[in-house]
Amino acid sequence: MSGARLGLGIGWRPELALLCERRTDLGFVEITVENFVDRAPLPRSLQRLRERGVVIVPHGISLSLGGAEPVDQARVDRFARMAEQCGAPLASEHIAFVRAGGVEIGHLTPIPRTRAGADAIVANVRRVRQTLGVPLALENIAAMFEWPDAEMGESAFVRTILDESGALLLVDVSNLHANAHNLGAETTGVIGGLPLERIAYCHVGGGAERDGVYMDTHTDPVPPAAIALLRQLAAAAPLPGAMLERDGNFPGDEDTNRELDAIRDALHGQASIA
Amino acid sequence: MRFTDRPPLPESHRTVATLAERQAALALALSAHAAPPAGFDQARLSRASAALAGKRAAAAAKLLPALWRSLGAEAADSFRAYVTAHPFPGDHAPDALAFAAHVCTRRTPADVIREVLTLRVRSGWPVQLGRARRRVVVVARVAGRPRYLGLPWF
After folding, report:
1. N or C terminus: which one in chain B shows less Cβ crowding within 10 Å?
2. Are A246 and A219 in contact (CB under 8 A)?
């Protein structure tokens, strides 16, 4: 078992603050660290959720853990401060890099599935863990391309990184779906090969197909394939939590609630009508 | 000691250095459309690069809607031209401001300039506007917003 029991969650956004407060079955909300002002009090709505016992999980997008360059200590400090401020039982980041050689990419970019790639991210996760007071979970990303010289498959690569760094796993089922669709990756084999006992929680995000490419937009409805993958995972291992990611083009609460219901039902191994 | 007599770098150090160089080349290819590193699927890489430019454009349009509207049908093309010379600065606010500096002219409407100024004040990003800076100040005066002139980065 990989730690805290989180239950049903959602990525907290100002536009979803009311929905979060109205929804009584939320066990946790995830916040994107970079969207908050450093050292400022949390928004009142988040404070109310916390007082209610809803767990807040900080999620980083700019540490660039998979970069060959050492992680920026100022960013790590800020990340750790947020985890402490939220009283979070864990925090999460990505198996990716976002900058190199002084150039910002502005997007989570894949790293090569090689020994050198694993060494780089393991070294950075160890650096983060020296400052961060709680466990760190690493998320699989949606990639639009691959490095040419992979030495191992997706699941073996993830397992190597987790084994050597001591990190937990954040499985994004929509990203698994995107990679299967765009890169021909095979989801069943990847799910079977992942270290399921290290799963901290799961992401379920919406997306849309454009010109034959599945884009993990977080501004479109959740594809049924992502819910099916979550159900498959839940059948293979007890999942501590799962959450919805919606970042824009917000639908009415009814639609968002239906997606949350579908995630909750999949988490508990129940069939859903959604 | 001759150059060839130098001991080789330890294996681990060499692979990490190579990864750093390859990541830097990939970052440039993705964010500024530089020549992609060898071995990558060129079509997929340019699609990813275009998607990133689209993401930056969408953010700029959201941050500076009046500027975007004022450019009309040329907005997307203008942004594409801007992207090729300007790698992503790491945040969308300075990106939108640099784009504004790139496209603003003497004829830019006052409400657009006001929007740009407001974003500069709100985001706190000190951006080098160069020649556009003078135009911004002049138009700000015309628009009756001289109080902005007191801020240090104008």
Report:
1. N
2. yes
